[in-house]
Amino acid sequence: MENSVNKPFFIQDENVAQYAQLMASWIAQQVKYAGRQGLVLGMSGGIDCSVVACLCRLAQVDVHLVMMPYGSDMNNSKSHQHAMELIQKFDFPFHVFDIQSAVDALAIHQEQFVAEATAANRALSLANIRPRVRMTYLYQFAQLGSRFVIGTGNMAEATVGYFTKWGDGAYDLNPLAMVTKQEVYTLAKYLGVPESIQYKSPSAGLWEGQTDEDELGMTYAQIDGFILKGTSGNPVIDELIRKRIQQSAHKFAAVPTFKG
Description:
Elements lengths: L15 H18 L4 E5 L4 H13 L3 E5 L5 H4 L2 H12 L3 E3 L3 H7 L4 H4 L4 H9 L1 H16 L2 E3 L5 H5 L21 H11 L3 H4 L13 H5 L3 H10 L5 H13 L13
Parallel strand pairs: 1-2, 1-4, 2-3
Helix pairs in contact: 1-2, 2-10
């Protein structure tokens, strides 16, 4: 497979063992050089965070998995069940913090502000509070134990800006930043991530029944194709990806500052 200029490697069955060890060694080095005691990882029960958890295990670093449900949402979506399958299989230390009261306390409900917004902006403004609250919990928990927060965002999500700024886009290190979704699945299979996690529809858990691909209007396979080959195979999807890249550019740029 021909890689794009910005994708210097590609993980497949033939080299997955090599890259898993390289990524694990990189994680261990980041923790050691920073003088940290270990890592904190937000656990949603999804494939990306499960792969990162297993890479931390391979790196032999102390990693604590933190589940942060909004009320019963993780139970309703079976995310808690899936997370526990991984935790019990590999005996990860884990913690649970219900973020519902914190999220509800932060939400703006005054009609004069809400009424002026579009329906889409109202929904997203509320949904994005959750990953930002989770980020706050992770960083406090990490500071309590002199740990780093490890990220789980993959290259496909980053390409289309599919993450919350100052939410799940906030972390101290990220081993999956240059890894496509296809490669995540290859790593998951090699690392022994439970099949219930490998085969479920990816979801950011922003609301009940939400799936990434439905919200994006495209599949991860199409985004991966765009990354690796320059096209998803569908001109309409290619244009949608380019539009998303443009709209999310602010998420990657340095914060603009006035310099006189």
